[in-house]
Description:
The complex is a heterodimer of chains A (586) and B (76).
Chain A: E1 4-13, H1 17-28, E2 33-37, E3 53-54, H2 65-75, H3 82-102, E4 116-124, E5 129-135, H4 141-155, E6 159-162, E7 164-171, E8 177-184, E9 190-200, H5 221-228, E10 233-234, E11 239-246, H6 256-259, E12 263-265, H7 273-276, H8 286-298, E13 310-313, H9 319-325, H10 329-337, E14 346-355, E15 359-360, E16 366-368, E17 376-382, E18 387-388, H11 400-423, H12 436-447, E19 452-453, H13 454-468, H14 475-492, E20 495-496, H15 506-530, H16 548-551, E21 553-558, E22 563-568
Parallel strand pairs in A: 1-2, 1-9, 2-6, 9-17, 15-18, 19-20
Antiparallel strand pairs in A: 3-5, 4-5, 7-8, 8-9, 10-21, 11-14, 12-13, 13-14, 16-17, 21-22
Helix pairs in contact in A: 1-4, 1-11, 2-3, 3-11, 5-15, 13-14, 13-15, 14-15
Chain B: H1 2-10, H2 16-29, H3 35-45, H4 49-56, H5 67-75
The structure holds flavin-adenine dinucleotide (FAD).
Amino acid sequence: MAITTRQFDAVVVGAGGSGLRAALQLAEANLRVAVLSKVFPTRSHTVAAQGGVSASLGNEEPDNWHWHMYDTVKGSDYLGDQDAIEFMCRKANEAVIELEHFGMPFDRLDNGKIYQRPFGGHTSNYGERAVKRACAAADRTGHAMLHTLYQRNVRAKTQFFVEWMALDLVRNQAGDVLGVVAMEMETGEVAILHAKATLLATGGAGRIYSASTNAFINTGDGLGMAARAGIPLEDMEFWQFHPTGVAGAGVLITEGVRGEGGFLLNKNGERFMERYAPTVKDLASRDVVARAMATEIKEGRGAGKDADHILLKLDHLGADVIDKRLPGIREIAKKFANVDPAKDPIPVVPTCHYQMGGIPTNMHGQVLAGHSGNAIVKGLYAAGECACVSVHGANRLGTNSLLDLLVFGKASGEQVVKDLRADAIAHQDLPKDAADRALARLARLDSAKSGESVHEVGAELRRTMQLHCGVFRFPDSLAEGVRKINEVAERAGRLYFKDKSKVFNTARVEALELENLVEVAVSTMVSAHARQESRGAHDRSDFPNRDDANWMKHTFWYKEGNRLEYRPVNLKPLTVESFEPKARVY
Amino acid sequence: MGDLDRIRWQCRRGMLELDLVLNRFVEAELEGLSPEQLGVFRAFLAENDTLLLAWVMGQEEPPAQYTGLVRQLQQR
Ligand SMILES: Cc1cc2nc3c(=O)[nH]c(=O)nc-3n(C[C@H](O)[C@H](O)[C@H](O)COP(=O)(O)OP(=O)(O)OC[C@H]3O[C@@H](n4cnc5c(N)ncnc54)[C@H](O)[C@@H]3O)c2cc1C
């Protein structure tokens, strides 16, 4: 089948903060850049980020990148690569100031400098006390960042392909990546975007959990594309959870509710946090609260007809206090939980928020070909939440994600510019089978006359992940989870939908997205089952402690054979002394 | 149909809250909207996510042309 081919110097898949930052670097170097996005660029998930972006500017009080680096290494529970972490923390000030010069409307101090506020895990003098390091634009930091970068790209003549969905990578015999196969949603037409460099910036895949704070578009498409092309996925067992998302909806309920005196109940009406944390109770740290909630549910004391959630009670505060101190909470609860918290408790569960693992890269955004050595996949780069550099290790520090987008978006863009100049390369010839994998996927879906419902298989996938690989992990349950998720994967091979129309066929898009979610879910479950320790966000009931002797290493999952390999953590920073592993206590 | 399908896709947003509200509305009401109402909805979807959220959650007053639509969305 003849399909349209378009040529560019570089193709960037994803128009969130990372994709836009990378594209800007390319366009300003006068390369011909195409940026693809499933949705209008400024509707990328980065728009949801509120808290801010970290940089040790020291505008409010003394701070420096060494302290930021220490916090990040410790936050990562010593799974982060210290060379990449040093790189990111050293570049942070430059990245934020550059964004300021691009026109980002940061909040300011009276002296005109960027205002900074404290955030969990940010400290001065190596953990001594809290420091103000987060830079924000009101509660719309992600929104402001996206708009600033988008405007700048328009000016630099970046070409946008909006409402285009990348389906698969084009890889030749030698293993080089030569672009992507993509579908224009408006027509359903498929095209090859032929490029000398391809950069994946497709964001996270939080939709593998039934309780997720992520928008619907966060389906891990870049990870699915990489996995199908034979590229491993790194550290997929590490997902950050927030203790209180609305059960069934995912929408976050701020920790402020417990700060103001709200507390958690199990189905017996028991205030169970008194058992798990007798002194601080409901104000214990996020992971302690989330683990206690998961244990209550696991042991059959969850509320509701399926005994699958916990109740967050705040009616005792009274409507006046709720309205005054927790503005917006009643609206959120009414809208998404169907309860008025001034009368009834809000059903909540630990909710997936952020993916630490992803497509393995070095600190220049080049994608690693495998777990051993430093060989790269020629022509392929990745940045942002879909990539694993790894700076977040087993647990991300708040506000370090937006920083990651800026620093590694730019670094990968710079690397592409360098690679294309050095080689002064022409486009390599496309292999005859360039589009075959994607076309076969589409052909199967379009010709299926019966099969599994996308909705049901998707729901089963999310339920399985939530139940068997949630915030607190139990051995028998993980083993069962591996069996079940492989079964889901198998069912996903027989997806079927009735409407075969071409124009904006959401059913087709959802089927393609589900195939990506399957790769993410299987890699997560298999990686989690194998890791016999607790570290950062991976918390196992049977191995409650971190085991540096055996497990201070990155997991690499390969789709072929559902196989795992490991790679040592890089404990050697670029210029400073290594931070040796210590117990992570706050 | 094409036009409604485009609208359905454009209800995919960068924030979960909006995905939920818009998709509930679309499932229940899209097919019954008049041509004028569709026009308003289309224009609404072209606005920024942060504005949509502030309007739907009642934190900001929407412009006059959207008050009816926002009220409908709030009931969902
Ligand atoms: C509620 C919430 C609040 C947060 N707050 C903060 C915060 O305060 N500070 C912080 O540092 N981090 C925060 N985070 C995390 C942070 O927002 C994300 O990690 C980050 O925005 C991800 O950016 P990205 O560029 O990697 O991807 P995204 O912004 O998710 O963009 C992905 C892009 O890829 C495109 N895409 C995906 N698949 C395809 C495909 N197949 N074809 C074409 N295009 C595709 C999408 O259309 C989109 O343009 C928060 C996260 C959430 C959920």
